[in-house]
């Protein structure tokens, strides 16, 4: 049986190399359909969004890549953008496609009944693969707003055929070292039937496509009370868990800070990740944030989120696996549950603070950010101009 000190050492080895990807859109202004509250110092372009992401990495040491969203982050020279990121100590991560913000997509993008609209959508997805080639990015993330609002509005089955056809074309274009991440979402903006509503649909399409197609689990995209950790266990076992889009929800697709609404759920998810080998080296499970900071400061919100993922991961890694397995074998329900709860109730903050100090980082990235003067400097530099935001 592993001693607590061995478990701690093993946990630290994993935590030191844990990589949490930041979304460029978290740094821009965002809001609800009611109001976008603009914040001072918010980036005006993709170059500045990457600079803000680099600040998060400088302080946490755990966020070395930033995901782009095209066309929100469209630039003339992607190789130059990747070089800019490198100069700041980070890299370009996942490329997120956007086939949901154009009038043409009123009835859908890749599932639209009009072949010309489908062509336009697929062309955009192919453009995103070009961006991956130019930036050295491995993953293409596809989320489709496609669906219908009324029974009879369109043929559900034909829409699946159109989806499969579009995915096959894009899959045929990605390189041997690239992956297609297919994200699902229960509802919104479509309210009657969404074309990729759940993990089963995403998984089935990935199986049809091939090994480079994997599922992205956005933690905010399920019905209330869905057992997300079961989905994680299933997909990992099947070798098709490609990535997480981490965030918290109370009601719908709230995009709140991960680990804020339900830290216990995040721990349960991370336990299944650990159990399924998803934190081992080179497993290909990408840990990404997909959040918006509507009212809280954005860089600090991202730092807090990275720390929340680290804390949940640390607790999951501290589970006494031998004690748990023994209790499960013996059918000792309470002992098994206690093995998980003991780990969950451990205060891992001192251990993570020590890990940061050992790496020359401040033990408290939030305080270090507040002290750094970064916000004051960028607020001054970025006066005027149009600030980038969700949809800008
Ligand atoms: C919309 O629901 C969404 O939040 C999806 O989760 C995507 O990953 C994200 O936007 C960025 O396109
Ligand atoms: Mn998402
Ligand atoms: Mn979402």
Automatic annotation (TrEMBL):
<feature type="domain" description="Xylose isomerase-like TIM barrel">
    <location>
        <begin position="76"/>
        <end position="253"/>
    </location>
</feature>
<dbReference type="InterPro" id="IPR050337">
    <property type="entry name" value="L-rhamnose_isomerase"/>
</dbReference>
<keyword id="KW-0464">Manganese</keyword>
<dbReference type="GO" id="GO:0008740">
    <property type="term" value="F:L-rhamnose isomerase activity"/>
</dbReference>
<keyword id="KW-0479">Metal-binding</keyword>
<dbReference type="InterPro" id="IPR013457">
    <property type="entry name" value="Rhamnose_iso-rel"/>
</dbReference>
<dbReference type="InterPro" id="IPR013022">
    <property type="entry name" value="Xyl_isomerase-like_TIM-brl"/>
</dbReference>
<dbReference type="InterPro" id="IPR036237">
    <property type="entry name" value="Xyl_isomerase-like_sf"/>
</dbReference>
<keyword id="KW-0413">Isomerase</keyword>
<dbReference type="Pfam" id="PF01261">
    <property type="entry name" value="AP_endonuc_2"/>
</dbReference>
<protein>
    <submittedName>
        <fullName>L-rhamnose isomerase</fullName>
        <ecNumber>5.3.1.14</ecNumber>
    </submittedName>
</protein>
């Amino acid at each position: 049986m592993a001693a607590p000190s061995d478990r701690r050492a093993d946990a630290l080895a994993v935590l030191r190399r844990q990589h949490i990807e930041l979304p460029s859109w978290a740094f821009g202004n965002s809001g609800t359909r009611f109001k976008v509250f603009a914040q001072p110092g918010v980036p005006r372009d993709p170059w500045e969004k990457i600079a803000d992401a680099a600040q998060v990495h400088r302080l946490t040491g755990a966020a070395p890549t930033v995901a782009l969203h095209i066309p929100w982050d469209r630039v003339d020279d992607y190789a130059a953008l990747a070089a800019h990121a490198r100069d700041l100590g980070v890299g370009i991560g996942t490329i997120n496609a956007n086939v949901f913000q154009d009038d043409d997509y009123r009835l859908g993008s890749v599932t639209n009944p009009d072949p010309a609209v489908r062509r336009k959508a697929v062309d955009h997805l192919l453009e995103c693969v070009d961006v991956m080639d130019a930036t050295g990015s491995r993953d293409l993330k596809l989320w489709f707003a496609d669906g219908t609002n009324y029974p009879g509005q369109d043929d559900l089955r034909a829409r699946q055929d159109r989806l499969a056809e579009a995915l096959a074309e894009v899959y045929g274009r990605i390189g041997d070292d690239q992956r297609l991440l297919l994200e699902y979402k229960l509802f919104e903006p479509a309210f009657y039937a969404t074309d990729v509503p759940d993990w089963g649909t995403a998984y089935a399409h990935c199986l049809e496509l091939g090994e480079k197609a994997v599922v992205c689990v956005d933690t905010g995209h399920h019905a209330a009370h869905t057992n997300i950790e079961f989905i994680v266990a299933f997909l990992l076992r099947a070798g098709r868990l490609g990535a997480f889009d981490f965030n918290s929800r109370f009601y719908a697709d709230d995009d709140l800070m991960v680990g804020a609404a339900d830290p216990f759920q995040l721990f349960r998810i991370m336990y299944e990740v650990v159990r399924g080998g998803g934190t081992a080296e080179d497993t290909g499970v990408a840990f990404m944030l997909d959040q918006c900071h509507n009212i809280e400061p954005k860089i600090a919100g991202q730092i807090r989120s990275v720390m929340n993922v680290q804390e949940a991961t640390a607790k999951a890694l501290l589970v006494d696996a031998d004690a748990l397995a023994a209790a499960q074998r013996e059918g000792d329900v309470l002992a098994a549950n206690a093995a998980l709860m003991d780990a969950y109730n451990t205060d891992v903050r001192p251990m993570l603070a020590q890990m940061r100090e050992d790496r020359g980082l401040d033990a408290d990235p939030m305080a270090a950010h507040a002290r750094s003067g970064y916000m004051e400097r960028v607020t001054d530099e970025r006066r005027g101009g149009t600030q980038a935001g969700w949809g800008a």
